[in-house]
Amino acid sequence: MRFLIVRTDIRTAGETDITAAWACGNRLRDETTRPEPRRQVVHADDRDAALLLARALATVGAVRSGKQRVKVLPLGDPGYGPAGTDWPGT
């Protein structure tokens, strides 16, 4: 299975955004409608390689200071993930 490793900027949320999301029961950050800006994208062929690349990207100063984040996304099988039963470690 292939994986996508993405380093993104974290969008800051103002107090009005937080209040509106809380009052309406909406999500503050919804990646499906408004994804965070991507800084770097890398592909990996297996989970171990993806996690190794993610650890390397996590050493970037902006990630360590909380301005950016690293995400590892499985590609291919839609049943593979937290909602599926094949997620490693669950």
List keywords for this structure.
90 residues; alpha+beta; three-stranded antiparallel beta sheet
Structure description:
The mean pLDDT is 82. With 90 residues, this protein is of the alpha+beta class. Strands 2-1-3 form a 3-stranded antiparallel beta sheet. The protein is 28% helix and 26% strand. The chain starts with a strand and ends in a 15-residue tail after the last strand. It has one domain (2-75). It is globular and about 40 Å long.
Return the average pLDDT rounded to an integer. 82
Number of strands: 3
> Based on CA inertia axes, which overall geometry fits?
globular
How much helicity do the residues have?
25-40%
Distance between the termini: 18 Å
Strand order of the largest sheet: 2-1-3
Which percent range describes the beta-strand content?
A: 25-35%
Number of helices: 3
Structural class: alpha+beta
Q: Which segments are poorly predicted (pLDDT under 50) over 5 or more consecutive residues?
A: none
What's the main sheet like?
3 strands, antiparallel
What is the helix/strand order? EHEHHE
Instruction: Count up the domains.
Output: 1
What is the radius of gyration? 15 Å
